[in-house]
C-alpha cells in the first residue's frame, strides 16, 4: 500500500464545469489563463507546466515532462475537441520565453484563488444591482453562490472528469494522468455526478444513425435481442 494511502482515505472530487472554466480564464491574466487552459486540456501537473515547451505540442500529442515518477513523463493524446481548443488557447496566450510555453510563476495557485474570489464578488454585485433594478438574475451560478476556490490540482481533476464524462474508461484516464496504476483514478473518477452520468449514458444508448432502437438492441450475429 503506498505511503499515506488507506481504505479510509476520501479523495477530493472538485472540478470545473465548462462555463466555470470560461469565467475563470476571463479573470486571469493572459499567461496564467494559458497555463490553466493547458492543465485542463492535458492533465498536466503544475510542476510539469513550469517546464512545458512549445515544441512539446505536436499535432495529436502533447509531451508532459512530469518528474514525480517514471509514469509522469508521458505523451498525452489529444482525442477530444475541447483538448485541442484549450491547448490552442495556451499556445496563443502563453508568454514564456526561450521556447518555454509559460513564464516562471510560483504564485499560480494564489492567482487562481484571487480570480475565484473576484468572480464571486462580481456575481454578488451583479445580483444586488439586478435586484435593485428588478431585473432577472442569471441562473447560471445562483444569485449569491460562492465560486469555488480552485487549485492547480482541481484543474488536473477537471481533465480527468471531463474525459470520464466523454466515456473514456477509468484505466485510460489514469494512464493519461500519469498514474502508476488505476487505483486512485477509480476512487476519483469511477462515480460521475448524476447529471454527467445521465448525459454519458444517454449518448451511449443513442442508436447509430439510421438504426432503429430495436436494431440497436440486437446482440451479435444470431439476432437475439440485447434487451433484458
Topology:
Elements: H1 18-26, H2 30-42, H3 46-50, E1 61-65, E2 73-77, H4 81-93, H5 108-132, H6 152-165, H7 170-177, H8 183-189, H9 194-205, H10 213-216, E3 218-219, E4 224-225
Helix pairs in contact: 1-2, 2-4, 2-6, 6-7, 7-8
What is the percentage of strand-forming residues?
A: 5-15%
Tell me the number of helical segments per DSSP (H or I, 4 or more residues long): 10
Number of strands: 4
Helix/strand/pairing class, anyone?
mainly alpha
Give the C-alpha Rg. Answer: 21 Å
Biggest sheet architecture: 2 strands, antiparallel
**What does the overall shape look like?**
globular
Q: What fraction, in percent, of the residue positions are helical? A: 40-55%
Order of helices and strands: HHHEEHHHHHHHEE
Q: Could you tell me how far the N terminus lies from the C terminus, measured between alpha carbons in angstroms?
A: 40 Å
- pLDDT < 50 stretches: 1-11, 220-228
The order of strands across the largest sheet is: 1-2
Mean pLDDT: 82
What does this structure look like?
It is a single chain. The protein is mainly alpha-helical. 48% of the residues lie in helices and 6% in strands. The chain has helices spanning 18-26, 30-42, 46-50, 81-93, 108-132, 152-165, 170-177, 183-189, 194-205, 213-216, and strands at residues 61-65, 73-77, 218-219, 224-225. The strands form 2 sheets. It has a two-stranded antiparallel ribbon. Helix 2 (30-42) runs antiparallel to helix 4. The two termini are 40 Å apart.
Amino acid at each position: 500500500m503506498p505511503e499515506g494511502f488507506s481504505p479510509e482515505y476520501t479523495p477530493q472530487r472538485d472540478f470545473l464545469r465548462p462555463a466555470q472554466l470560461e469565467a475563470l480564464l476571463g479573470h486571469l491574466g493572459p499567461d496564467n489563463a494559458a497555463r490553466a487552459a493547458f492543465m485542463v486540456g492535458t492533465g498536466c501537473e503544475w510542476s510539469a507546466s513550469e517546464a512545458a515547451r512549445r515544441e512539446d505540442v505536436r499535432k495529436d500529442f502533447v509531451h508532459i515532462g512530469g518528474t514525480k515518477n517514471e509514469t509522469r513523463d508521458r505523451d498525452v493524446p489529444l482525442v477530444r475537441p475541447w483538448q485541442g481548443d484549450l491547448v490552442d488557447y495556451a499556445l496563443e496566450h502563453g508568454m514564456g520565453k526561450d521556447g518555454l510555453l509559460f513564464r516562471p510563476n510560483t504564485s499560480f495557485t494564489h492567482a487562481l484563488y484571487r480570480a475565484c474570489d473576484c468572480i464571486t464578488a462580481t456575481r454578488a454585485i451583479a445580483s444586488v444591482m439586478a435586484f435593485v433594478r428588478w431585473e432577472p438574475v442569471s441562473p447560471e451560478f445562483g444569485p449569491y453562490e460562492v465560486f469555488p476556490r480552485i487549485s492547480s490540482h482541481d484543474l488536473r481533476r477537471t481533465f480527468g472528469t471531463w474525459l470520464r464524462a466523454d466515456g473514456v474508461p477509468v484505466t485510460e484516464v489514469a494512464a493519461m494522468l500519469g498514474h502508476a496504476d488505476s487505483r486512485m483514478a477509480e476512487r476519483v473518477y469511477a462515480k460521475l455526478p448524476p447529471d454527467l452520468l445521465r448525459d454519458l449514458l444517454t449518448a451511449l444508448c443513442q442508436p447509430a444513425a439510421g438504426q432503429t432502437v430495436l436494431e440497436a438492441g440486437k446482440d451479435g450475429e444470431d439476432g437475439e435481442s440485447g434487451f433484458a
